[in-house]
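Protein Record: Sequence and Backbone Structure Tokens
======================================================
Scope: a single protein chain, as residues and as a discrete description of its fold.
Tokens: labelled as protein backbone structure tokens, with as many entries as the chain has residues.
Position: the record begins directly beneath this header, with no further notes in between.
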Amino acid sequence: MLALLLPQLPDDILLLLFSYADAQALGRLSQVCRRFQRLIGRDTLWRSIAKLSLNTGLTRLGRDAFPQIALKERVKVSQNWKHGRCRQEVTLRWKCNLLPWLQLDKQWLYLSQASDIRAYPLSRNGVGLHRHPITVYTGHQDDVCRFVVNESRVVSGGGDGKIIVYDTCNSFCVEYSAHNQEVNCIDSRGHVIVSGSRDKTARIWSLCSNRLRECLHTIRTEDRVWSIAINPTLSSVMTGTACCSHASPLRIWDLQSGQLETSLGSDFRRGAGVLDILYESPSVMLTCGYDAYIRQWDVRASTRRCVMEWEEPHDSALYCLQTDGNFMIASGSSHYGVVRLWDKRQSKSLQMFFLSSPSSSPVYCLRFTTSHLYAALAHALYTLDFTSSDSWLAK
């Protein structure tokens, strides 16, 4: 009787009733009739479900990274991430082993190959990748170690000790003579660049048009700098070092003065260098490195101990990580191209993918959208496609 009465109810009452249903129930209801299908396609019904799902583009701060894609479709693909359902392929391959780095920016994938950075267009809505670069950025005399995309600029650091800033709009570039040794890491936000080097210094540079190439501060870290990140508020910069000196490998420095603000942690073993740093918010950050741990720090709670940690099995170093801004973390290990997916609500990894077997290669960098994960290894760029035609919602 209830099934016969439901179609007679007004839209607002139906939407209220549907809001109490879970994802699978909504999937079944959407098959009842075209009217139900139309109503159930609305984002308002899926927002609370999407907030609790992995990698739907909704961050815990309330931002929607992919508003052009319906939440219903993103929740559907989220189940594929959770259960490890994907199609794996080698998208690009090169002849000699490299140390590539990559970045995603709106509709572009930027990939460093030796001394060049190549820009590949993504297909519509970030689904798929064109295999031929539209633009190639050159200028380094040695391999590009790291680079970052800051609005319309690509900022790179190379083994030649230089920083090069490319303007993607007018093909203009500026070169900085930055360090005496290779620039291992780099970050840029607003009108500031920070760089870290094997020469045991981190430097803060101006990107303002009237102060180009000017070094604002030199930070003596007393250890090789492997990773660096600017706080989203532009108030400080965090360095991750090789952990071969007496100091903590994780330190935060004032961006305006270059002075040390605080050190994080106290129990790092010697050689536990930090290879990647990622800010989730101005006070929360993720780190990983040689000691095989992903750590989440919250400076509001403590600077001596992390608030959460996840251990990579088999004591394998972690080269890189990425987060969806909510519950999911993806990490790349140093052996056999292993990519792991983690749910912060669980202590063990959720899924594992071998991208380089039987030969071994680190995952030097990985980035993902709501539908695809791209991983750069020594010999190739791999793509994991999590879109699926399986109608799990109706099961």
Notes: The chain is about 10% helix and 40% strand. The first helix runs from residue 2 to 5. The longest strand covers residues 87-93.
